[in-house]
Amino acid sequence: MNDSPLDVGRAKDKLIVATAALCGCFGCHMSLLDIDERILQLVELVEFDRTPLTDIKTIGKCDIGLIEGGVANADNVEVLREFRNNCDVLVALGACAVNGGVPTMRNQFDLKECLEEAYIHGIGVENPHIPNDVEIPLLLDKVHPIHEVVRVDYFLPGCPPSADTIWLFLTEIIAGNAVNFPYSLIHYD
Ligand code: SF4
To answer: Ligand 1 pocket: which residues have CB below 6 Å?
Structure first.
């Protein structure tokens, strides 16, 4: 991988990290939590800004942003752009962010077909109608990997990336090191 572009934060005591789940299943966030007791070491190194872990809803200036999930609706686009504007380093965390992953299975159908299958023709649907409310983010025609919307600095593949992969990645870029994964952490069979 590249040398870390993360130079900002080195003079500070702790780096600031934000995370978001766009169109994903939260499995990548669960994998982050699977670092288990190492989370205590992590909070010695970083402070969390906006993330489902803190329930903070707005993002401030951050050193590292981790993005789970593909880009499927207008809200995802807005959140992703906010992260790009506020994070020095932006990371595509997991297959859905890297290449669209499972959510792109809907891309082979047009949006009308997807909505009709979900809300009108689906098994067990009652009161069939396609919801339309300003509170519901508008769906994009297709699901996109995040690099098709904003510039991305690092890509961590895997569904999800393992806790050890996330741990090595974070500790290396926090230390300002280039990240070199052993084969065992980037082997997906
Ligand atoms: Fe879930 Fe896998 Fe997508 Fe992560 S990459 S959000 S674990 S489906």
So the answer is: 24-25, 27-28, 68-69, 94-96, 101-102, 159-160
